[in-house]
Design a protein that fits this description.
The chain is built from 33 helices and four strands. The radius of gyration is 54 Å and the shape is elongated. The protein is an all-alpha fold. Residues 449-487 form a coiled coil. Residues 33-91, 160-191 are annotated as: Disordered. Residues 40-50 have a biased composition (Basic residues). Belongs to the CBF/MAK21 family.
Length: 798
Amino acid sequence: MKARRNKKQVPSFRKLIKTSKVKLENKLKNKQFKQQSTLKKYRKEQRKLRQAVNDAVSKKPIPLEDPKEKWAGKRIEKEEEEEEEALPLDMMDEDDLQLMEELGQRASFLTRDLSSSEPVHAKKRKHEHVIDKYEKIPRTLQTAPEKELIHLLPIKDKSGIIPQTREKPVTESNQDEENQEEAELEEETIEEPIRELTLEEHLIERKRKLQEKKMHIAALASAILSDPEGNIKKLKELRSMLMEQDPDVAVTVRKLVVVSLMELFKDITPSYKIRPLSEAEKSIKMRKETQKLREFEEGLVSQYKFYLENLEQMVKDWKQRKLKKSNVVSLKAYKGLAEVAVKSLCELLVTLPHFNFHNNIIVLIVPLMNDLSKSISEMCCEAVKKLFKQDKLGQASLGVIKVISGFVKGRNYDVRPEMLKTFLCLRIKEIEVKKDTEDINKLKKFMTFKEKRKTLSRMQRKWKKAEEKLERELREAEASESTERKLKLHTETLNIVFVTYFRILKKAQRSPLLPAVLEGLAKFAHLINVEFFDDLLVVLHALIESGDLSYQESLHCVQTAFHILSGQGDVLNIDPMKFYTHLYKTLFKLHAGATNEGVEIVLQCLDVMLTKRRKQVSQQRALAFIKRLCTLALHVLPNSSIGILATNRILMHTFPKMDLLLDNESQGSGVFLPELDEPEYCNAQNTALWELHALRRHYHPIVQRFAVHLMAGAPSEGSEAIKPELSRRSAVELFETYSMAAMTFNPPVESSSSKRKDKVLQGDSFLNEELNQLIERCCSQVTKSPLDFAKYLKTSLR
C-alpha cells in the first residue's frame, strides 16, 4: 500500500512574503511579552531566595517536634542528648567538630543553608497533608528592621563553598532629598506676607489692569475685523476672556467682551445661513480659497454657538442666584452681567434674523418678556416689536409668534399684557405686502432701441435682447414666488394670533390680557373670517353687559365690533345700536386727568361709528353725540378738547343739518334730556351748543380757535376758517401733537417783557407823602421807657 501523503503543504516563499504587516507586528509583540514574563519570573525567584537567606541568617534554629513520638522515646532521646552534651570537647578534632556542626545545621528544615551547593529541594511525597505543607513554611518574625545585603563572590574551603555577604551601607542621600522636597513644599505653602494696599493704590492698580485688558480686547477685535478669514481663531481667544478670574476686573472685563463679541458677529456674519457639510461634500477636493472659506464658516458657526451658550449661562446664573466655586463674581454683579447678556441677545435677534441659531435666541428671549424685572421685560418686548416692524417677509415673525403662543398657553394665560401687545406691530396689511414686494423687486430700466443702436453693435444688441428677455421672466417668477410665500407666512401667523385671542376670550375673560386681546382684534378685525363674525359679536356684547370690564376694555370691545362691521361685515344684517348706546353712556366715564388714554380710543371709535358709517347713522344720533362731546370738552385736558372739537368739526361737515345746535330756537316737541343714555330719544335737537362760548375763553389758544370756528358754523373759507395745518390733520393726530405728557405747553408760552421796569424798582413812588412823613417821624423817635407787652395785653383783653 502506498503511504498516505500529507495534504498540509509547506508554505512557499512567495506566500511568506505576502504575510501581512499586522501579523508580523503581532508576532513581535508576543515574543517581547514572553521575554518580559520570563524575566519577571526570574526576578521573582531571586527575590524569594534572598528573603529566605536573610531569614536563615537572622534567626535561631528551632527544632521541630514530632507529635507521633511516644513519651518513652522522648525520654531515651533526652538521655542520649544529655550524654552527648556530657562528652568532653577535648576528645574531638577540630575537623570532626566542624563537621558535626554542619550536620546539625542540616538536620532541620528551618536551619538548612539554602545557599549551599548541595540540592535544596527534596522529593515531595505524593500524599502529603495540607497542614504539613503549611507547617514546613519558614516562620517570619521580624524583630528588627531588615537590612539590605550585598552578595559577594563565594569562598571555597575544604568543607565546600561558603557564601559571602555584606550589609549595604545606608546612604542618607535619599532621605536628604526627601527632606529637601518637604522643605521646598513648606516654603511654597508659607508665602511671604503681601503688603496691604491702600484704597487709592488699589484703585490705581485696578485702573491699570482694566486698561491692559481693554487694549488686549481692542487688539483682538481689530485683528479679526481686518482679516476675518485669517484671524477667525482669535475669536476663541477673545471668547476665553469671558472666564476672567481676576476679582478686581472680572465683571467689567466680561461685560466688555460680551459687547465686543456681539459687535464683531454683527460685522463679520455673512448675509446667508451656513449649513453643515455632508460627508460627500467633505470628501471632495477643492481649491485653497474654497477650503479657507469653509474653515472660516465652520469656525464662525462654532464660536457663535459657544458665545450664545455663554450668554445663556449668564442669564441662568442670575436666575438661580447661586455662587460658583470661584466666587469671582458676587451675587449683586450677576444682574448687571445678565442685563448685558440679554441686551446682546436682543440685538442679535433683531440684526441677524437670517443667521444660524435664530430660533434658539427666540426661545431664550420669549420667557424673559415675562420676567419679574421690568427693565429686562421691556428690553425683550421692544426687541420683539422692532423685529416685527422690520420683518418684510414674515419668516422670523412666524417663529416668534409660535413660541409666544405656546408660552402663553403653557403659563395658563398668566403673563404680562405687554407680551400680547407686541402682536400689534405685526406687518400683516395688504398695502404693506404690495409695498414690500415693490421694495424687494425694484423695476429695472431696460435700454431703448435708440440707445442700443448708438452704443452697441449688431451682435451685442442681439445678446442684449436675449438677456433682457431672460431677466423679465426671472423677475416675474421671483415676484410671484415671493408674494405667494409672503401671503402664506402671513396667513399662518394670523391663524396663530387669532387662536391665542379666541382662547383668552373663551377661557380667561377676567384676565388682565383682555384689553390687549380686544385691541389686537380691533386692529386685525378686517382679516377675520366672516364665519366667526356672529359668534364674536355675541361674545363682545356679553362682555360689555357683564359689567366686569373697565371703561377702556369696554371701549376696545366697541372698537372691535365696528371694525368687524366696517369691513367684510357690511354684508351682515346686524343692528349695532346697542354698541352706540354703550359708547354714548361711556363718554362721561372717561378720565379727565393726566391719564386720558381713553380719549384716543373714543376718537377712533367715533371715526369708525359715525364718519365711515354716515349712511347708517340717523340725524338724532349725530346731534346727541355732538352735544355730549361738547359737554365733555369742558372737563378734559387741552389736547383732548382739541381732538373732540376736531371730531365735531368733521361731523358738522358730514351731517349738513348740524347747524340746528347753533340756534336757540327749539325744533319739534320735547325737552332735551342730558341724563338719558339713549342718543335716539334724548331730544338733542331742542338744545344749543352753549359750551362753545365757554371754550372761546379757554386758556389754550388752539381750543379758542376751534371754538370760534365751530360757532361760525365750521366754514372752509373766510376769516373764521382755521389754518390748513389744523384742518388737514385727523383728530387723533391733533390729540397726540398737543399732548402734555412731556410736561411742555404746545404752543410754547411767550415771555412777557415789562416796559416799566425802572418805575417798578422805585419803591417810594407807591407811597403817599403823608405816610412817608409819618414813617420818618416814628423812626426818628427813640423810646427810653421799657416795653411792657403784658400790660397792653391785659388792657386789650378787658
